[in-house]
Amino acid sequence: MSGKVNLVLTMLLVACGLSLVNAQYQARHLFIELERAQSQARQLDIEWAQLQLDQSTLGKHARIEEIARRDLNMTPLTAARTQYLTPEQAK
Q1: Which residues form a coiled coil (predicted)?
Q2: What's the pLDDT band for 61 if we cut at 50, 70, 90?
Q3: What is the CA angle 66-72-73, rounded to 5?
Q4: How far apart are CA 73 and CA 75, in angstroms?
């Protein structure tokens, strides 16, 4: 009877050991995934900051005006070139 108890306890001990090894493996695997996700989040934050900087730079009025003059040959509006419509002329 004592031999059977020892065998059952040994099997239980082996099962607990295997369960522990499996739990540690899964914990390491999840930790690695967490580290990858955090690294990707940091990279995306850096890209987001860069895109915000690019957007603010590209959207400045002076840059848009300079491109309009250079590439589209546009000129600034002056009072001499402006036509004003009155309600009588619009009909």
Answers
A1: 27-54
A2: confident
A3: 80
A4: 7
For residue 79, the 8-state DSSP code is: G
Residue 55 lies in a domain: yes
| Residue 42, both tokens | 């940091």
Residue 20 resides in a domain: no
Residue at 36 is within a domain: no
- Distance, in Å, from the CA atom of 22 to the CA atom of 18, rounded to the nearest integer, reads 6
The H or E element that residue 40 is part of is helix 2-58
Q: How many domains does the chain have?
A: 1
pLDDT tier at 60 (50, 70, 90 boundaries)? Answer: confident
83 Cα distance to chain centroid: 49
Identify the domain containing residue 51 by its residue range.
45-72
- DSSP assigned state of 59: T
Question: What's this model's pTM, rounded to 2 decimal places?
Answer: 0.56
> In angstroms, rounded to a whole number, what is the distance separating the alpha carbons of residues 19 and 67?
67
- Do 63 and 57 touch, CB atoms closer than 8 A? yes
